[in-house]
UniProtKB/TrEMBL annotation:
Pfam families: PhyH. One of its GO terms (molecular function) is dioxygenase activity. This is Ectoine hydroxylase-related dioxygenase (Phytanoyl-CoA dioxygenase family). InterPro entries: Phytyl_CoA_dOase-like. It comes from Kitasatospora paracochleata. SUPFAM superfamilies: Clavaminate synthase-like.
Length: 274
């Protein structure tokens, strides 16, 4: 699985749109500066060391390295914390919104996350973001920001170009030895998993149906930290309730209808906290 996702400077918006429509994923170089990623890294590391972020979802046992570095879910909803202010400011940063708008039109912010992925951490099984967000009538888009240089060794993202054309499917049980999440979407017939490689400040944008995930961090001394935002078109009429309220480009909050129906796994589906 070689690095075959071509990268582009953020000025080539027409090229990015064509590539996104074709592959469901684009890699944009150096959207953020090294100084910015250094600051982001320092702020989030300080927060996790201070109190392990009282808003995080614990999905791991105490003997798992991820228990010491749990992912932060929706820090943009914590304005009293520096991590919250940073996340909200970046969610509405024109550099990201210009890219998102070029790919899906005017958008609202729906979610923020920060992953630490320290050495020896498990990865995350292949999945589709649309399974969780359930936005309608169009799906979401992710903006995955590399805060560290990342490659196969420290668990950079793997993606399946072309899978954005498939429906969101109900996942199956994942291998707990490799993934800290318990569900997996298998690679569609005829498509292949491709490994990404990114520098700090690069952004990977991908469609809500694009299958993606990551392998464990097998290095001895390299974190793979990332800051992720999800956006939905402003034409969205509903979304899973966990993601409300949405955030407008001006920072104000917007509420739309809460999605019902249980998602692709039926009425008992409860995959809200992605």
């Amino acid at each position: 699985m070689n690095h075959t996702i071509p990268s582009s400077p953020m000025t080539d918006l027409a090229v990015l749109r064509d590539r996104y429509d074709r592959d469901g994923v684009v890699h944009v170089e150096q959207v953020l500066s090294r100084a910015e990623t250094d600051e982001i890294r320092a702020v989030f590391m300080a927060q996790v060391e201070a109190d392990r972020f009282v808003g995080a979802v614990e999905e791991v046992t105490d003997d798992d390295v991820l228990a010491r570095y749990p992912r932060f879910l929706n820090p943009h909803r914590r304005p009293e914390l520096e991590v919250g202010r940073r996340a909200r400011a970046l969610m509405t940063d024109a550099r990201l919104l210009d890219l998102v708008t070029a790919l899906i039109g005017p958008a609202y912010g729906a979610q923020s996350m920060f992953y630490f992925k320290p050495p020896a951490a498990r990865g995350q099984a292949l999945h589709q973001d649309g399974y969780f967000l359930r936005s309608h009538p169009e799906t979401c888009i992710a903006a995955w920001i590399a805060v560290d240089e990342c490659d196969a060794a420290n668990g950079a993202l793997q993606v399946v170009p072309g899978s954005q054309a498939m429906e969101v499917v109900c996942p199956q049980d994942a291998n707990p030895a490799e993934s800290f999440t318990d569900k997996v979407v298998h690679v569609p017939t005829g498509l292949t998993v491709q490994q990404t490689r990114m520098r700090a400040g690069d952004v990977l944008l991908f469609h809500g149906s694009t299958v993606h995930g990551s392998l464990p961090n097998t290095t001895a001394d390299r974190f793979r930290r990332s800051l992720i935002f999800h956006y939905v078109p402003q034409t969205s009429t509903e979304i899973a309730g966990y993601y409300l309220p949405l955030v407008s480009p001006d920072g104000s909050e917007v509420t739309i209808a809460q999605a019902g129906g249980g998602g692709p796994c039926g009425d008992q589906w409860a995959g809200a906290a992605h």
